[in-house]
Amino acid sequence: MFSHMMVGTNDMARSKAFYDALFAAMGGRPGKEDPLGRVVYMHGGAIFLISKPLDGQTATAGNGSTIGFNVASPDEADAWHKAGTAHGGTAIEDPPGERNGPAGRLYLAYLRDPDGNKLCALHRLG
Q1: For the chain: N or C, fewer Cβ within 10 A?
Q2: Which are the contacts of 3, defined by CB distance < 8 A and separation ≥ 6?
Q3: Over the stretch 42-84, which tens digit does the pLDDT of each residue have?
């Protein structure tokens, strides 16, 4: 359904270090800068970008927004969460772990990136 996702940042170097660590924890590669100065990540058939806002205004996090990343296992979700907190992210909500709800059994880990964007690593259990 989605072609790509992009978040704004006020500090490209800080955000690149953060997202490089998250993608490495999921088996991905470091992002590459495009001609417009955005950093592009391609992994698992998806595209994710970080960019300074093209309108020149300050980047802000979307209140009520969450960007979810599929991960291969609970261990990968834990590694993702650990990499994020070690590279400037903030742990939020409950600690990583299993949740049961209308979507079934899920293993979830939540972070805010250095610019305040809410992120989730999700693995569907049995």
Answers
A1: N
A2: 47
A3: 999 999 999 999 899 999 988 889 999 999 999 999 999 999 9
Is there a contact between 91 and 83 (Cβ–Cβ < 8 Å)? no
* Within a domain: 59: no
Please give the residue range of the domain that contains residue 45. Answer: 5-53+65-124
Specify whether the CB–CB gap between 48 and 41 falls below 8 A. yes
Phi (first) and psi of residue 8, to 5 degrees: -85, 155
Q: How many Å apart are CA 123 and CA 126, to the nearest integer?
A: 10
User: DSSP state, 95?
Assistant: P
Token pair of 92, please?
């939020």
Instruction: Judge whether 58 lies within some domain.
Output: no
Threshold 0.85, pTM exceeds: yes
Give the residue from 20, 108, 27, 122 showing the smallest Cα distance to 71.
122
Domain tally for the chain?
1
What CATH number corresponds to the domain at position 105? 3.10.180.10
